[in-house]
Design brief:
By secondary structure, the chain is mostly helical. The protein has one domain (2-58). The chain contains 4 helices and no strands. Helix 1 (2-19) packs across helix 2 (25-33) and helix 1 (2-19) runs antiparallel to helix 4. The chain starts with a helix and ends with a helix.
Length: 61
């Protein structure tokens, strides 16, 4: 679950950069296919945080 959290947080950063037109042509295609995430990358950040909390919750012994 921590892997999923890290991937979501990295994707949040990538979509944030793509929304600001900072990563070139790949950012344009990212925003073409994932438009809502370019407009609001905090959705992925929140999902990553929830995945991390869930991973910590299920790993408590």
């Amino acid at each position: 679950m921590y892997f999923a959290a890290v991937v979501l947080i990295i994707l949040s950063g990538l979509f944030y950069a793509a929304g600001g037109h900072e990563i070139g042509a790949i950012g344009e295609s990212m925003c073409r296919y994932g438009g809502p995430f370019c407009d609001s990358p905090h959705y992925l950040l929140i999902a990553g945080g929830l995945a991390a909390v869930w991973g910590a919750f299920v790993s408590i012994r």
